[in-house]
Amino acid sequence: MIPLQISPFQYVANGVVFSSIIVLAAIGLSLVYSIADFANFAHGDLMTVGAFSALFSVGFFRPMLGDAGVFGLPLWFFLALAFGMGAAAVISVVTNRVVYRPVKDSGSIGLLISSIGVALVYRALVFLSFGTEPERYGVPRQGPVPWVRETLGIAVTPRNLVVVALTVVLVTALHLTLTRTTLGRKMRATADNADLARVSGIRTSEVIFAMWLIGGALAAAGGVFLGLEELVRPRMGFDILLIVFAAVILGGIGSVYGAMLGGLVIGMVHELVPLFDQLGVPLVSTPYAEAVAFVIMVVILLVRPSGIAGDSG
Amino acid sequence: MSAVTSWVRETLVRDATERRIFAALGLITVLLVVGVLTGVVGLRFLLFQIALVGMYALLSLGLNVQWGYAGLINFSVAAFWGIGAYCAALLTAPNSPLGLGLHPVFGFLAAIVVSAFVAVLIGIPTLRLREDYLAIASLGLAEVIRAIILNERQWTAGSSGISGIPNLMSWLPLTDSATTAAIVVFLIAVVYLFLRRVHRSPWGRVLRTIRSDENLAKALGKNTYRFKMQAFVLGSVIMAVAGAFYAHLNLYIDPSDLVPLTTFYIWIAVILGGTGSNRGAVVGAAVVIAIREGTRFLNDIGFIQTLGVDLAPLRLLFVGGLIILIMRFRQDGLLPPKDELIWPAARDGSGAGGASPSGAASDGGASSNGGDDR
Description:
By secondary structure, chain A is mainly alpha-helical. Chain A has helices at residues 8-35, 43-65, 75-100, 107-130, 146-152, 158-180, 182-192, 194-199, 204-229, 236-251, 256-279, 289-303, and strands at residues 69-70, 73-74. The longest helix of chain B has 27 residues, at 43-69.
């Protein structure tokens, strides 16, 4: 039974998957915004770096582990994901040390412009090491999960479920870190008022280190999931950066929880665009999915520039 | 003759570093002239490059108004350039989708009007907010405009591009390349003199104040939003004029040059040249073209071809690395603005002559303002 018209729930399901990716990216971007206090334009390309690091590690994890699998995905994919997250975390810490820290005195604008340079360098290095062609992780093709199809009439593959489940795990882990651990309290204090935190005896340099580590790892997770759902392309991160920024602004710049909410909304809207098209709303056709994110962002800036959860404009 | 040298000394070259930079530029010019005379470099090719450098210089001057004067971060330089180029191409090329074949004047007029309109549209939501909102929104705008040009084939011909754009002023008794080179030199002269005039005016002083401390400007009763909007529109219009000129220089336009990398080339030109310095913007544009065209030549060298290295990513690496290095080691750029912001009469009257205070590079105004009041 092939439905002639795709069920609206299908778009919602796609939206949840895409939202997961945006949420992961938006959290990292928002963390940098709140603690390092600049708009990091290299965040998208950091996602790309994470995705390609994972791709690189597939080369030796796959022969090592064979085709053994869990949750419908081969085991090597999970190891590659972990490797990508680790690599991106290390790279973002090193980048902070080499590039951002020395220009800290020039303020958030100097850091912003430097981050453009970092983005270009990341992308150039990906081009140089992996070429310009889109790649795949090589996870075997899977059909939709039968019971979801029968009960809801929508196609959800096991990898969709894994992406969403792992996102929930990562976001919960971050939430617990922020609220239940000393490090999390230090991070929130530093984000709130770095000078006050320093006076209170918090080593803010350690907090910033942890922030880059977490932000990089989450960005890489988003990148790997994006590569799993679509293709691993050298421009994938930069192409998605605008949507991630829209999510961060919608959530309120610097607010991690706002970024989660913003990512959910923007990701959902992005995937619902074809539905609008189906309903006959003119001009909003699929090539303009990115433009829709942009329009939402402009509307937020006009109506409520501090975002949903933000407190400062 | 001595009048000329003293003019050069006063307006262009003021200290040892600058003398070295201009000496290097002079040397390159001499080499190029020798190259043309000996036939190594084709005259036609050289004139085309001059026109291209001029086009980049115009773009850099436009960005300098926004970033250098007012501190506005515009990442959609390529989009405003594209708006200008497409306005010119669509209205003047007989075989464009619109098929109008109008006089180039209309192309330039449309470029100015449309770019001003788009600049106002993007300025309204962003210019009241912190400066990084404009950075994010303008990057989005650039992608949206590129998407529109790529997808609305019935109006813009999409990725196949528009050809058959007429030459400018072909009635002049010069070759086509000489005419375009002359036109761009004229355009730069007009824009340069105009910008120097407005930068020294009260309007320019308010902008410099906004750049260094917007709250101070507000406290002085200035409507900073309006001033920022004016600077943003002015810069965008200059970029669109550069784009319209490019359409008539290249005689063909497609969306491939509207990528963000084009924008970052202009950013390098401005920050390398010296933020806020119009001389710097022109010199920076020349350096950027040298990089771009220089790496293109590398492609032709057999040795590098045998290595099998794709040069596009190397160029990307170079651009990115250069941005990082400038921001770290030479934020003032090569030719930071100095007392060029002061009326010559005021400078002579102060008795300090050309030796004005150093420093005050990025936030331009502070010390030179002092000189102004003396």
